[in-house]
Design a protein that fits this description.
Number of domains: 1
CATH topology: Deoxyuridine 5'-Triphosphate Nucleotidohydrolase, Chain A
Shape: globular
CATH class: Mainly Beta
Number of helices: 4
Largest sheet: 10 strands, mixed
Low-confidence stretches: none
Number of strands: 12
Radius of gyration: 19 Å
CATH architecture: Distorted Sandwich
Length: 206
């Protein structure tokens, strides 16, 4: 079931286990309590690829922090200042707001149609698991044919929340990879146990 904005605002003062955190949050007279999403805004930090460096990405799990740092550069753009995103360019950004998702909810990242109709998409990994916290990392891609100018501080997307069953006491909880992130960064890829099995078993590598 989709959670309405009015309940999310109520959850901001609930007991910690049920609390939804969005910081900063500024109530507006334009807010519709019956809406099924809540807006978030573009933050100030961006991570860009250094074009022409390296020989390509052949194995995500083989890259390390030094290689990632050498192939990318981080930029800080003050609120209200223009930041251009060129056609077919991918930039990592973050939300201005810091979030904490309650354990009985999950969140989906939703593009704003006003940007999307011009070819600007803000997310590829679109779900935030229960218990996640931090600034939302945005994979901002310009799929259009013209330069798109974005401004930190402007509304860039929405979060839509869905109720999920809570874990019972004693059940193991696997922490989400999205936890306490405050700036855009490349996330290391780790092979699952099933991938390791497939790569090691000669029946599947012939």
């Amino acid at each position: 079931m989709i959670v309405r904005r009015a309940e999310l605002i109520e959850r901001m003062t609930a007991d910690w286990d049920k609390r939804f955190v969005m910081d900063p949050f500024v109530p507006s007279d334009d807010d519709d309590p019956g809406a099924a999403s809540i807006d978030f805004h573009l933050g100030n930090r961006f991570l860009l690829a250094r074009r022409g460096l390296g020989v390509g990405i052949a194995n995500l799990g083989a890259s390390d922090a030094e290689e990632d740092a050498a192939s990318t550069k981080e930029m800080y753009v003050p609120n209200g200042q223009p930041f251009p995103i060129y056609p077919r360019q991918l930039v990592l950004g973050v939300s201005l707001e810091w979030f904490r998702v309650p354990r009985d909810m999950m969140a989906s990242i939703v593009d704003r149609s006003a940007w999307g109709r011009h070819g600007l998409m803000i997310s590829i990994a679109r779900s935030i698991h229960p218990g996640g916290s931090g600034n939302v990392t945005l994979e901002i891609a310009n799929l259009g044919e013209t330069v798109m100018i974005v401004h930190p501080g402007k509304a860039i997307g929405q979060l839509q929340f869905t109720r999920v069953d809570e874990l019972k006491k004693g059940e193991p909880h696997q922490h989400t990879g999205w936890c306490a992130m405050v700036r855009p960064e490349l996330k290391p890829y780790r092979d699952s146990s099933w991938e390791k099995f497939l790569l090691a078993d000669p029946r599947f590598t012939r």
